[in-house]
Design brief:
The structure is a single chain. The chain is of the alpha/beta class. The protein has a single domain, classed as 3-Layer(aba) Sandwich (Rossmann fold). It has 9 helices and 7 strands, in the order αβαβαααββαβααβαβ. Helix 1 packs across helix 2, helix 1 crosses helix 3 and helix 2 crosses helix 3.
């Protein structure tokens, strides 16, 4: 069971209710996947914690994916809002708009070297097919009735069991500022590994910052387990405090290979002697990793 997969604070200055945010997030994941040598034509895309709209997955469909699966603990997304975001996304793709950059959306990570529309990944021949009027209408119909037999969209909220999706049925699983909220992170990686087809991959942007639980960005690592338990109280989720190195360990344990990472580093604002006992053995790199995009493949 994967608990706590929901969108909380941590998206930075963006929201999945904004089409330009969704467009920027999806294309960043795609551009970096191309750089890492992964497929940029996934047939089935799954997203954990889509939040207030399904915009990131809709961008995947408009890039040529055939099926989008969204999993959230709490149902945030609404049909009318999804349709409005979709229409804006169609316009962005039709215009081959540049990727919204760090000036417009400074909190979206990772940063890119080039924010031009990625024509080499999404050439006109591919987009002519992906943006065909009948295909766009099929996606609209799927948003209106995701339970239809031929729907390209499935939205599961709430959900809690790995059995909601058949094994080896997904080409790409992604998330943006979500995995830091999952309580049983090892189980989450096991579930993702089971869902992926051989050769499929994960792409997760993880925010390791305190999410307003401390005065400094990594001050939450100074709290002992008892204090942290009291801070959480009866809330169903908070943040799991797993550092970057533990994500890599969990991925390796379940069989993901050759992780590719892009880290956003920040000076540590906590001295090692201030860390809670469970964190005192962390490598120095964990203390300066504020965010990271992690991509890894299932063989």
């Amino acid at each position: 069971m994967v608990a706590g997969v929901t969108k909380l604070a941590g998206r930075g200055a963006g929201s999945t209710a904004l089409a330009r945010y969704c467009y920027s997030v999806w294309l960043r994941h795609l551009v970096i996947a191309a750089h890492n040598g992964y497929s940029t034509s996934p047939g089935t895309v799954a997203e954990l914690g889509p939040g207030s709209s399904l915009g990131i997955g809709l961008a995947a469909l408009l890039s040529g994916a055939n099926r989008y699966l969204a999993f959230d603990v709490v149902a945030h997304a609404k049909t009318e809002q999804n349709l409005a975001v979709f229409e804006e996304l169609v316009d962005l793709f039709v215009r081959r708009a540049p990727i919204p950059d760090a000036q417009e959306l400074p909190e979206i990570l990772p940063r890119l070297d080039d924010y031009a529309f990625p024509h080499s990944i999404l050439p006109d021949a591919r987009l002519v097919v992906a943006l065909a009027p009948e295909r766009i209408e099929h996606i609209r119909a799927s948003l209106r009735d995701p339970s239809a037999a031929d729907s390209m969209v499935q939205y599961r909220a709430p959900w809690s069991s790995a059995t909601v999706l058949e094994r080896e049925s997904v080409d790409l699983i992604l998330s943006q500022a979500v995995l830091e909220h999952i309580d049983d992170l090892p189980d989450a990686y096991r579930t993702m590994h089971a869902w992926l087809r051989p050769g499929g991959y994960i792409s997760h942007q993880v925010d390791f910052r305190c999410h307003n639980t401390a005065r400094t960005w990594n001050g939450h690592l100074a709290y002992g387990d008892l204090v942290w338990k009291l801070m959480r109280g009866k809330r169903p989720y908070l943040i799991n405090r797993h550092p970057f190195s533990e994500h890599l360990q969990f991925m390796a344990q379940v069989g993901f290979v050759s992780p590719q990472t892009r880290k956003f580093e920040m000076p540590s604002e906590v001295r090692r002697d201030q860390l809670a006992r469970r964190f005192r053995g962390l490598p120095d790199s964990d203390l300066v990793t504020g965010c990271a995009l992690i991509q890894a493949q299932r063989m």
